[in-house]
Amino acid sequence: MDHQLAIELGRGMAMAGAGLAVGLGCAGSAKGIGIASQAVGGVLSEKPDLFGRLLVLLALPGTQGFYGFITAILIFVNTGLITGALNVTPGTGLALMILGLGVGIALFFSANWQGEASASSIGLVARRPEAFGRSIILPAMVETYAVVALLVGILAINWLTSDAVTAFLRQ
Amino acid sequence: MLALTKNRHQWGFACGRISALEGRLMGQDFFLSLAGLERIEDLFQRLQDTSLREHMNPGAVTWEDWSTIIDAYVHNLVLSLRRDSPRTAVADLFTLSDDYLNLKRAVQHRGAYPFLSNVFSEDRLNDVAAGNVSLLPDVIRATMAQLAAGAEAANPMVVDMTLDGAYLRHYLALGSSLEAPFIEYWVRERVLARAVVVLWRAARSGHPLKMYQQHFLPLGPFNGVLGEMIAAGDPRGWGALIPGRLGDLYQEALEAPEEEQVVRFEQITSDYLTDLARRVKMQTMGPERVAGFLWGLWIEAFNLKLVISGRLNKIDPDILKSRVRACYV
User: Fold this and answer.
1) Do B21 and A46 count as a contact with CB atoms less than 8 A apart?
2) Half-sphere exposure in the Cβ direction for B50 (13 Å, CA)
3) Can you give chain A as a three-state secondary structure string?
4) How confident is the model at residue A70 (pLDDT cuts 50, 70, 90)?
5) In chain B, which residue's Cα lies nearest the Cα of A49?
6) Of A61, A122, B158, B197, which alpha carbon lies 20 to 30 A from A16's?
7) What are the distances in angstroms from CA B16 to CA B6, B11, B83, B307?
8) Do B12 and A42 touch (CB under 8 A)?
9) pTM of the model
């Protein structure tokens, strides 16, 4: 394959992976926060003094968007897009695209479910404000799997774009 | 058991409000303690610490005062939740009875409409009084046209039968319009229980049940069972005809002294419906949650009226306590 074309393909697929990770992560967070904010709005109309506590629960599904952002930035940096030293083979690009898709899907669904869990916790705080501490734990459990996806994404991106792997692929 | 609907996030706001409002509902212990108070002044004092306070006015001492306060409290809250709900049918289920009391006055040309209205506006009621039923809901239009056109509107018994049947048909239609199987099931149970009470009271009063076949029915899925009950005539044999849990409750009610059987049936079916409604308390978002809360509110209003009217009329506290219905919270 023509070297220039190979670089183009590798870069394109890596960018697609970054786009999928950040796109799905942000879309999931937007939906999760949307779900939770409906419940927060209803509770605040009756108990406005709970705003501070509910804001924490409302913000929890927003973290997946940032995880997608971190994944995308890491792909940008490690593939040389930012520094200008492009070092992505088609195989690495394909792997990064699938990785971005996997991380994105995990982030999308975890944000959705976290929105649901947050809405439940918001209901709990509305009934029993003193249970706020325990109520955070419920949506935080969902967060675990978004963090796992992010960690695997970071490790895999670093491994796929490490000098040793890149040098091996170019032999 | 029927599953609750899922992913109805547009109900989130109303359900969020309900999460906050549920804490203000009064429990059964509260009503039992109210019923046991010796002085009526103490009862009024206790009520000032409840959600009723916003609707109270100084010097409310008569039954009419308190009835107005309770009705205003319930009606305002139901309408407020109706505005916050993506579908109005859930709230309409709990205001429909007052609307039909106004509709009855319109049919009988009795002028003003004192009951709190929601589904039928005053203009619509004036139309009905003038004989124009074309803008009423499809489910009752034909019945109302027949009632308005004939001389039957002059017979109060026929008006009652016809409007009771129309109300229950309307109620069934609202319940099935929500695409929520649990609500539809609950509404059907409530409608059947209500229809049984109507026929039972009619039988006890010596009214000819055949007239109910003509004016009260049809009633959707219950035409068969209600038709059989009318044909059987004697209420003592109805227990075997009524299907499901309501049949068991009917048999249980028959064990009470004869003059208390209907009231007993109303009470235990109310408790059964409350027990069903409690299953939706854990739903985060959905029409079932709103319906459950509104039923809880409806029961709260019933218990409040029972205790206040009972204490004002010096009814024995033990009798009052035995009549307090199971609460949602």
Assistant:
1) yes
2) 23
3) CCHHHHHHHHHHHHHHHHHHHHHHHHHHHHHHHHHHHHHHHHHHHHCHHHHHHHHHHHHHHHHHHHHHHHHHHHHHHHCCCCCCCCCCCHHHHHHHHHHHHHHHHHHHHHHHHHHHHHHHHHHHHHHCHHHHHHHHHHHHHHHHHHHHHHHHHHHHHHHHCCHHHHHHHCC
4) very high
5) B20
6) A61
7) 16, 9, 14, 30
8) yes
9) 0.88
| A128 dihedral zone (left: phi>0; alpha: psi -120 to 50; beta) | beta
**Predicted-complex ipTM score:** 0.80
Structure tokens given for B192: 């059947």
CA distance B1 to chain A (A): 22
Contact B285 A38 (CB under 8 A): yes
Mapped onto helix, strand or coil, the DSSP state of residue B254 is helix
Please tell me whether the peptide bond between B218 and the residue prior to it is cis, using omega within 30 degrees of 0: yes
The string of pLDDT tens digits covering residues B289-307 is 999 999 999 999 999 999 9
Tokens of B228: 């059989």
Specify whether the CB–CB gap between B276 and B189 falls below 8 A: yes
pLDDT band at B189, cuts 50/70/90? very high
Closest C-alpha among B162, B186, B160, B158 to residue B172 = B186
Is residue B251 classed exposed, middle or buried when 0-12, 13-18 and 19+ CB atoms within 10 A define those classes?
A: middle
Option in A40, A41, A127 nearest B22 (CB): A127
- Which CATH homologous superfamily contains domain A28-170? lithium bound rotor ring of v- atpase (1.20.120.610)
The overall average pLDDT reported for chain B is 90
Q: How far is CA A33 from CA A115, A133, A138, B117, in A?
A: 6, 20, 15, 37
Structure tokens at B149: 């056109």
For residues B174-187, one letter each, b for 16 or more C-beta atoms within 10 angstroms of the residue's C-beta and e for the rest, the string is bbbbbebebbbebb
Average pLDDT on B203-213 reads 90
| Geometric angle at alpha carbon B102, from B77 and B263, rounded to 5° | 75
In terms of Cβ atoms closer than 10 Å to its own Cβ (0-12, 13-18, 19+), residue B138 is exposed
Of A39, A46, A127, the CB nearest to B12: A39
Q: What is the pLDDT of residue A1?
A: 63
Q: Count Cβ atoms within 10 A of the Cβ of residue B79 and give its class: 0-12 exposed, 13-18 middle, 19 or more buried.
A: middle
Q: Does B21 sit within 8 Å of A38, measured CB to CB?
A: no
Farthest CA pair distance, chain A: 67
Question: Which residues make Cβ contacts (< 8 Å) with residue B155, sequence separation at least 6?
Answer: none
- Sorted by where each begins, the domain ranges of chain A are 28-170
Measured from the Cβ of residue A165, the count of other Cβ atoms closer than 10 Å reads 16
Question: What's the distance, CA B190 to chain centroid?
Answer: 8
Number of CB pairs < 8 Å for A and B? 69
